[in-house]
Amino acid sequence: MFGGVFDDEFSEPSRAFVDAVVAGSFGLVTSEVVSQEIAAAPDAVRRLFDDLLLIARVASVTDETLRLQQAYLGARIVSERYATDALHVALATVAETSMIVSWNFRHIVNFQKIPKYNAVNKLHGYGEIAIYSPLEVVGYEDEEL
User: Fold this and answer.
1) 78 with 104: CB under 8 angstroms?
2) For residue 79, what are the contacts with CB-CB under 8 A and spacing of at least 6?
3) What are the extents of the domains in the chain?
4) Among 81, 70, 72, 67, which residue's Cα sits nearest to residue 131?
5) What is the average pLDDT across 55-68?
6) Which terminal residue of the chain, N or C, has fewer Cβ atoms less than 10 Å from its own Cβ?
7) CA gap 57, 55 in Å, rounded
8) CA–CA distances in Å: residue 98 to residues 11, 35, 38, 81, 136
9) Gap between the Cα atoms of 44 and 62, Å rounded
10) Hey, CA dihedral for 10, 13, 15, 18, is it positive or negative?
11) Per-residue confidence at 141, pLDDT binned at 50, 70, 90?
12) What is the band of 62 on the pLDDT scale with cuts at 50, 70, 90?
C-alpha cells in the first residue's frame, strides 16, 4: 500500500488512505515483515513508511503467526512461493486488526482467497478479517448519495 502513493495508477486512493490514517480515521498496524520489504523500496516510500511508523503499531512475527501462516499454506490458499503473503494475513489476523488494506490483488485482496483465509481463521479460533484495496476504504466527499 505504501508504494502505491508514488505509483500513477494507485496514487490517488493510496494518498487518500494515508491522509485518513494521519487524520485518525484509521489506526495503522504494520509489521516487521513490511519493514523488511520497505528497506528495498525507493527513498520516497521509505520516508513515508518511516513517518507513518510514528503513529503505527508494529506486529511481530511469533510462533502463533507462523502456525497460522502454515495453516494457510496447508489449506493451499497460496503456494509456498508466496508464503510471505500468507504471513502478512497471519500477522494482521493475530494482531486482531479489523482489516487489511493492500494492492496485492493476486494473493491477498482476492475474492476467491478472502473466504479461504477467513475459513482457516475460524478453524483456528480467530475472527474474520476484512481485506480491501485502499480504493474501497476511502470515501470521496464529492460523491452524491
Assistant:
1) no
2) 73
3) 3-137
4) 72
5) 97
6) C
7) 7
8) 23, 20, 23, 26, 14
9) 30
10) negative
11) low
12) very high
Report residue 127's pLDDT band, with 50, 70 and 90 as the boundaries: very high
Percent of the chain residues past pLDDT 90, beyond the cut: 88
Answer yes or no: is pLDDT of 142 > 60. Answer: no
Query: Euclidean distance between the first and final Cα of the chain, in Å?
Result: 28
Output the CA–CA distances (angstroms, integers) from residue 123 to 62, 68, 120, 126, 127, in the order listed: 19, 10, 5, 8, 10
Exposure class string for 117-140: b at 16+ Cβ within 10 A, else e: bbebbeeeebeebebbbbbebbee
Please give the Cα distance from 23 to 138 (Å, whole number): 12
Q: In the prediction, which pLDDT does 145 show? A: 46
Q: What is the average pLDDT score of the chain?
A: 93
